[in-house]
Protein 1
Amino acid sequence: MMQDEPQLSRSSVATRKEAWSKAELLDLVTRSAGATMAVIDRHLVMIYVNEEYARWFEMSPAQLVGKTLVDVYGEQDCARFMPFVERVLRGERVQYQRMLRTPYGFDEWRAICLTPWHNSQGAIDGFITTALDVHELQVTMNALRAANQRLSSHMENSPLAVLEMDHKLQLLHCSQRAVQLMGWLHVAGLEGRLLTDLLDPAAMDDNSLQQALQRLQLGEESQNRAETSFVRSDGTEVHCEWFNSALTDGEGQVTSIMALVQDVSAKMQIARQQHYLANHDSLTGLLNRAAFQGRLEKSLVQARHSKGSVALLFIDLDGFKRVNDAEGHRAGDEVLRIVAQRIASTVRAGDTMARLGGDEFLVMLDQEVTRDVTDTIGHRIIEALHLPMTVDGRDLRIGASIGVAMHPPMEGDIDALMNRADQAMYSAKRAGKGRLHYAQTA
């Protein structure tokens, strides 16, 4: 401080603060927070919105004030969040997450906070709504902390885990949600410990998080994302998305790093289920045609490189239509499930099975493929499918005819190989069914 600069006493600073108008304070908070903010009355009419809020609707604040939530969002969208509005109007402070389309045309998750608005008599006149995306929460956290002393409560109540570290990645703050998510026993004793020590490298699927944090430490990035997958000590597999940001001083040196961690295990589970459904037959659980052809293509490429062999067994059930027509589709579906189980019990661990649809099945052999192996597995399948199948207390009988095509000597083309196996299967049926027939090379 310069010698001739006037020094302000505490009383003079307090006098200055008292001189600030409420409008000036509101403008300071709403402009610097980086959040969308609005005040809604009990009739769901907007009586105040900040510029950030209006920008999402490509309007000015003046154009939104006086409109209802239904006017702005529509009845269908309002129905989704009205349960939260009803809770806040009963006096409850509500936080939740919602996927929204940004003004830039992409979707993102936003953390939304609804706070009751009490009048001087304590009655609820409406509520205040604020919304932040994860990036904004990181960048503006310090500003929000200064503007709202209840920020620590927000952090603890957030569904995101909060981790604050110094430039060495030593923990400065850890929310209870982080303790739960990471599977740590308790918050006590975590402060001052290195995050890299707390996250067991042996339990992590890769080191992408460590690399992301290192880039922040070196000043190469100011914020980044990372995904981790690890197994907690209780055996639970956890998938997390990390949103990391670095705070620098006036000289550009990193002073602290903050990570907001979201548990995306449920999303990963859904993604896995969708991937499974996209590649498997819903009735039998075997691979579908597209997935099988992908496996077959890889095996043929490998066979060409290693001079190996691939055998394709095309299986068509004998007498299935009769059973399906006489017993009904429910019984027919159960027969198909039993067929899949019996085929699985006859092949080897590394062999590949699929259902093409209807009563057609495929088996690919690409390990230790010989004529003896193919004969053995093919006849095992025929024998297994010839045995009675008990469905709803009744013994049903079907059979199977199998056509086999092998590469080499046949060309290693998917369509050609499948067509030759299909033709060989029809030859087996014409020869009397319930038998194995090989495609001829000529």
Note: The domain at 160-265 is CATH 3.30.450.20 (Beta-Lactamase).
Protein 2
Amino acid sequence: MRVIGAACATSLAACATYGERTAEAYSAFEAGRFAQAESEYADPKTTDSAFLSGAEAGMAALTGGDFAGAQTHFDRAHEEVRELEDRALVSATDLGETLLSFALNDTFKAYEGEGFERVMLHGCLAITYLAQGQLEGAYVEARRANKLLESEEALYEKRYAAGGLGHFLSALAYEMLDQPSEAFIDYQRMVEKGVGKELAARAMIRLAPRLQRESDVEPLIATFGGDPARPEGAATIVLLAGVGAGPFKQEAGISIPIDGGKFVQWAVPVHAVRPQPVSSLVLRLAGASESVRTTVIEDVGKVAKENLDDRIAWLAAKSAVRAALKYELTDKLEDEHGLLGLLAGDIFTIATERADLRAWQTLPDTWQAARAFVAPGTHQIIVDADGGSSVALGSFELSPGETMIVFARSLGTRVYAYPIGGRRTDTPAAPATVPAVPTVDPASP
């Protein structure tokens, strides 16, 4: 009875949900106080999870434009799940056995992320490498993200409409390293998976003549049109954006009365979506008549729901086993201690059968991207949120063939954007360090 009492006390003391424990940190993040959010999430007591501490703090830093700080936090999260990832990359069966491992309550275990969250972690790491001009690191992380996705697909025997972020980042890095054939393969995989298809198809059409692969893109030209004319020696501006706020978890459970006043408790997490006031972002140049709108390359909210739905069968099996064991325990306690034992068993069941609501809450609802080809020279760059605010980044000079990246994130109706590359020709509103980004051969398409 003393052991039961201790377990009940521990469970009831920790009954605050993940959302409740992190409410202050998430509120700071949502309000744009990214340094505060980063600091609070970095404190292990906030999340009670080393993986989520690194992931959440990393996203706060990334959204605030601190790419080096974000990388440090994301690396910390990766260290917590490296062993699990290595097993997953060797065998999906090993990953499944890990998911089915018995626990008194899922919330008592160290949280190692949902499968899609581990995929997203490496996508985010790729962004931090890309933002710091470390192109090899970017495509290494993007490759790992896609390998982990393939492991999840093998485990659940399905194909997710996912992987667009990893493939796009990998392709972008390869183009900037002047390896168009490798970039073409990544774009081709995006088209095959149906993620960011229009953006990827146009990139394939653009690269095909240089690779003598015109016949491979004839079906795409029929759908999307030919390669449009670009300014001579065109520079490139790529807008990469996290749009909106991703889903969070809620508990779905049912108590089933059985003979003798006893019952069994069954609980699993389900995803709940947040309102998304901004649907996309627009990249435009001051004084120009044309603009480009982002397209979705990764639907995080959709993939998160599908991935959790696929895992529900595993969770339900675990929950059913626990319910049966707790029923037997309650029955035994009643035999030995009468009504007091029955009461203790019921309290123990309620206290220990809780759905695990831990989740990476600062992820965006979607990852989106757009690409603009502009004449070399000086341009004033503006990012608009469709349904929200705008941000003027300032004036930047771009050389022929240069690639500039703009990383952006929308939260509510506000948009935050950070230029990477180019040479600023006006005075920035606040001091900022903009790392150099390699350029491609000006003669390349």
Note: The chain has a mean pLDDT of 83.
Protein 3
Amino acid sequence: MNTRFGPIRVIPGEGKSRFPHCTSLFIDDEVKVLIDPGAGSKTLTALKQESSLDLVINTHYHFDHITYNYLFDKALIIINEKEAPCFRERKNLGALLGMDEVYGTDWVDGWIARIADPAVKQSPFSPQNRHEWWLSTSRVDGEYRWGDVMDFGKTRMELIGTPGHSKGFSCMNFPDSGVMYVADMDLTAFGPWYAGSDGDIDLFISSCEKIKAIDCEYFITGHEKGVLGREDFLAGLDRFIEIIDQRDRKILSALTRPLSLQEIVDQGLIYGRKYHVDAWIYMWEFLTIKKHIRRMIDRGQLNDLGNNLVGAKG
């Protein structure tokens, strides 16, 4: 499969683009652009030595898509207008990522102090304490809006609003090349991720449907899969979305009796209990289960029994 589409070069992430790395895009045009600098330190340092970048664009604020912003100190850095406040005040990261909701504002303050320290002890399974958080959210030079069209010379790029994964999550469409970068609509076996406080299950689904309707020949995922033709991508996207229903069924099968949110979370249905020793993995589990329960209550699939208990219908 192609790794280059004219001036657009696909840069696979280290570790086969598995989290916490991602596939990046380099646009080698009159304006030299890097989209989502998460491919890895070695890979992106080599790119920096090869070419002087003018612009770094983040599809959204998550760690694996902004990790190496800091390497490109001579380039302008931009992100969508909905998430740009995260780069101006780090407490906004705490609010969107879920730390404030699950652990409170004091915990967020402690987290900010930890990421400021390059020698801080790392978490076992998540990048929560990585110093790159501090380095790569230190500035933002501009914002883009959904619907904007950018011209880099021979390359035109449309900014498509696709919220759900995050508040401002965006896909990058190159209509003249028949290529779209879909970032975390990534078709991984894990499934859709909407575990931040700003994540939304139904918005994620509707954003996927929006992308399906756009005429595009090739799709580039941010993780693992890489470049896919239209038929393979659309089939994979249907399977990807189906994982949401599979999670609902897991929760329903756990409700052999009325349970509290906490009791359901402690079963580790999404990530597995052994990973809960990492505060962020537990946070992601908690918020994912909470979103599913609220959604199933709203859809009439679960009973809200009061006293923080939910039960299966029938």
Note: The mean pLDDT is 97.
